[in-house]
Write a structure and sequence with these properties.
Order of helices and strands: HEEEH
Strand content: 15-25%
Radius of gyration: 17 Å
CATH topology of one domain: N-terminal domain of TfIIb
Structural class: alpha+beta
CATH class of one domain: Mainly Beta
Number of helices: 2
């Protein structure tokens, strides 16, 4: 095996930016497909086994609850559902 070559490694500042963006996507607000603002919130209620996507523009959808999903997975399924309609 060859030692790691520094010219093939991602610079630290780029790697940190990628990590920060991933954290934001997992936790933060998302862009709404209807109004385009970053006001869409996804709430997960594990007791009632439902996930709800709500935006300040009035868009609200109930999503199928899957225990293995993260909030980004619910957002992607929400976008897929919106594109189908």
């Amino acid at each position: 095996m060859s030692p790691r070559n520094t010219r093939y490694q991602t610079p630290g500042y780029i790697a940190q930016a990628i990590r920060d963006k991933r954290k934001k996507l997992l936790q933060g607000s998302y862009s709404c497909p209807q109004c385009g603002k970053e006001q869409l919130r996804i709430g997960i209620d594990q007791n009632h086994k439902e996930a709800i996507a709500v935006c300040s523009c009035g868009l609200e959808r109930s999503l199928k609850f899957v225990p293995a999903f993260e909030t980004i997975d619910y957002y992607n399924s929400f976008l897929d559902e919106c594109k189908r309609k």
